[in-house]
Amino acid sequence: MNIDGVPFRTIQVDPDDGWRVAIIDQTALPWTVSIVHLATVEAAAHAIRHMQVRGAPLIGVTAAYGLCLALRADPASEAMEQAAAMLAATRPTAVNLRWALERMLARLRNTRSDDRVAVAYEEAARIAEEDAAQCEAIGRHGAALIEWAAAAKGGGRVNVLTHCNAGALACVDWGTATAPIYMAHARGIDLHVWVDETRPRNQGASLTAWELGRHGVAHTIVADNAGGHLMQHGAVDLAIVGADRVTRTGDAANKIGTYLKALAAHDNAVPFWVALPSTTIDWTLRDGIAGIPIEERAAAEVTHLTGRTDDGGLVQVQVTAPDSPAANPAFDVTPARLITGLITERGRCAANEAGLLTLFPEQR
């Protein structure tokens, strides 16, 4: 990800002390780029739970580094297992969280307690580097779709619709849904992104639009309910979204509202692609609607909004009737039948078990 021309990553070990974990506080965006240093496992868990970091891949990497911080305080096995359990409980939907912790524990359980801190940092760094490489590969495989759309239009501008933030901010670098966009942009393809605001937390308006703008990609923020209208009028050439969990049969959980975009795309013959690293695939699940746990977040995210006033101050205001209750399911599941295909680091495939197994035969 470039921020005003400067390469930037969402998470890294502080180079000054070699152990604290530096993150971009995404709750401060788009108004301020604030770097927070995590020094304890409790701080890492707080960052995940309160969405200072968010996005399935980045949650997994943050949890891995959180375990490193826990081991600095106490490298004993019992303390390590307790820390992992605490981190695992922070967010239920994104499978990368569980995957990263299981990978860390598999390495650390067979490591002497005296060596665990060094080994943990080594493994967490490896997970972070692999995530960046996977997202870059997703970009290569997905950019071809944008190139084909441009060719079909005779070189005209390609309009891509995305939902929520599956960008570099949701990963270590590149992003999932945005990686093909950044690749195509770098290749000089004329493209434009419709950015869903993504209520209730407005991750599209506040995060995706911010990073696209800093990267120099043309974009327009639209209300969540505008996507179907744009598709009806031929203003969307393809949709690319991310995912927090994908079943072995191709069902995809993503930010609430994704299912409605998939329905509109299906009705208007707009290709609807889901971009994800293989760490987001839950090979144990076949039925996403019945099997993927959906996080229910605080009602205040629906009833209140935070914004900046003309004088630069930040205020939170209530936008609902004072006595009305609010529900806040954070994700929905798009059935595989509505998904044109999946974009992974190993290539593109159909959104079904057979398609996934062509790319990941070791899961047979």
Structure in words:
By secondary structure, the chain is an alpha/beta fold. It folds into two domains: about 1-130, translation initiation factor eif-2b, domain 1 (Four Helix Bundle (Hemerythrin (Met), subunit A), Up-down Bundle), CATH 1.20.120.420; about 140-364, Translation initiation factor eif-2b, domain 2 (Rossmann fold). The chain is about 40% helix and about 20% strand. The chain contains twelve helices and 18 strands. The protein has helices at about 40-50, 55-75, 75-90, 95-110, 115-150, 180-185, 205-215, 225-230, 260-265, 290, 300-305, 355-360; strands at about 1-5, 5, 10-15, 20-25, 35-40, 160, 190-195, 220, 240, 245, 250-255, 270-275, 280, 305-310, 315-320, 330-335, 340-345, 345-350. A seven-stranded mixed β-sheet has the order 8-7-6-9-12-17-18, sandwiched between helices. Strand 17 (about 340-345) and strand 18 form a beta hairpin. Helix 1 packs antiparallel against helix 2, helix 2 (about 55-75) packs parallel to helix 4 and helix 2 packs antiparallel against helix 5 (about 115-150). The two termini are about 35 Å apart.
Considering the chains and any ligands shown, give keywords for the structure:
364 residues, globular, Four Helix Bundle (Hemerythrin (Met), subunit A), alpha/beta, 12 helices, Rossmann fold, 4-stranded mixed beta sheet
